[in-house]
Amino acid sequence: MEIVSLFLPFCFFLSCFLIFNTARFQRRSSQAATLPPGPPRLPIIGNIHQVGEHPHRSFADLSKTYGPIMSLKLGSLNTVIVTSPEAAREVLRTHDQILSARNSPNSIRSINHHKVSVAWMDPSSTRWRLLRKLSATHLFSPQRIESTKALRMKKVQELMSFMDESSEREEAVDISRASFITTLNIISNILFSVDLGSYGSKNSNGFQDSVIGAMEAAGSPDLANFFPFLGFLDLQGNRKKMKLCTERLFKVFRGFIDAKTAEKSLRDNPKDVSYRDFVDALLDLTLGDEAELNINDIEHLLLDMFIAGTDTSSSTLEWAMAELLNNPKTMAKAQAEIERMVGQNGVVQEPDITELTYLQAVVKETLRLHPPVPLLLPRKAETDVEVFGFLVPKDTQVLVDVWAIGRDPNVWENPNVFEPERFLGKEIDVKGRDYELTPFGAGRRICPGLPLATKIVSLMLASLLHSFDWKLPNGAVSDMDETFGVTLHKTNPLHAAPIKKRAIN
C-alpha cells in the first residue's frame, strides 16, 4: 500500500513512537478492558494499513467483526469509530458537548483555517458562537431563506434553459458541473449579489476545481494526520494543494470585498438595507474601534460557505440522478408524482416540494446510500467519557460512519438497494433527530446550511425530472464508483442526455 511504503525512509525516526506507545499502553493497562474492541495493531503504524482508499467502507467491514464501536490506532492517533444509530446517538446527542471539539487535518492547519473556521473552531469559544449566530441570522434563518426563494427559482430556471439548449443539440450534459454552477450562483448571489458561474463557458471550472481541490486536500490520506511531526514534509502534497486552491478562492473573495468596500464608501447611507447581502452585513462588523470581525475572518467564513454548500449539494444531485437513471421505474414514479402536482405545462415551485412525498423519499434514499460527508467531520474527546459502555479517553478522535449506518442490514431492509419506498409513511428525516439517517450530523455541530441545501437539491431534482426525460449515452448503465474525500464524489462524472418533454418558460 502506498501509505505504508512512505514509512520506509522514516523508520529510524518513527521507531521512537514504538517506545512511546508501549509506555502509554503500560500506563493505561488497567483501563484496557474498558476500551472499545478493535483489530490487532502493527508496531508504529497501528491500523493504518487497514484503512485503505475508502475508509468508510473499511470501517464498515471491520465493524462486522468488532462491533458498532471500535478502537483503532492510526499512527499516534487514538481513534474510535461508531457504526450504529445507538452509538451515534451517544456521540451526537448524549455526549455532544464533550465530543464537540475537532481534530483538524494537517492541510487545514497549513492555512490556519482551524483557528477561524466555524467548521473547525472550538464551539465553546466566543468567536465560534458569533460566527454561528451570523450564519444562522443572515443566511439560514427561515425568514432569510424565504426572502431568497425568488432567487433560487430564477437560477433553477436558468439551469432548465441550459438543459433545453443541450436537448436541442442532442448533447449529453455533465450533471455534476451543471448542478454545481446552479448551486454556485445561488450561493454567490446570496453572499455577493453576483453570478460566479456560467454554463456557456469554462470560466466556472477554475472555481469548481479550487473548491473540490480544497475538499480533496482536507480529506485525502495524510501521514501528518497520524504523525504530526511529519507535517512540514508535506509528503502527500496536501498542504501545497490546500494553499494553492484557497489562494485562488481568497483572490476571488477579496475582489468582491474590495468592490463592496469601495461601493459602500460612495453611498449616502452606507447601511441602506436595500443594498445589503451577507458580505454587506459582515463588513459592517469590521467598522469601529470595537470591530467584531476583520477581513481575514470574512474570507475564511466565505470559504466555509462555498465549500460546505456547493460541492455537497451538486454531488448529492448527481448521485440522485445516477440512481434514478439506473432505476427507470423509480424515475418514472417520481416524474408521475411531479406531473400530478404541477401539471403538464406548469413550473415546479418551492412550495410544491413539501407535497411531493415520493420525491422527498428519493432525496432521503440518496442521502442514505451516498451521504455527502461519509464520516462527518472528526470529533475529539475533551475529557475521558463513556460511550456505549466503553471508555473513550481524552484527546481521542471520534468518527461517526454515517455511510456504514446507512447500509447496515440490522437497520435497513435490503440496505444496498435504492428503494425510496422505504421512507413512505414514515417520519424519518435528515434533521439530526433520527440517528439512522444523519448525513448532516446532529447536535451543536449539525450543518447550519441543512435547510437551504435540502431546498436547493429538491428544487433542482424536481425541475429536471419534470421538464425532461433522461437517457445515458449509448444506453449505458451509470457506474457507482466513488472517490473518497471530505465529500464522496462519483469517480466518473455522470453524463446524461436531456430529452425535452415540454416548453421551458
From TrEMBL:
The keyword Cell cycle does not apply. SUPFAM superfamilies: Cytochrome P450. Heme binds at residue 447. Its cofactor is heme. Belongs to the cytochrome P450 family. PANTHER family: CYTOCHROME P450 76C1-RELATED, CYTOCHROME P450, FAMILY 76, SUBFAMILY C, POLYPEPTIDE 5-RELATED. This is Cytochrome P450. It comes from Eutrema salsugineum.
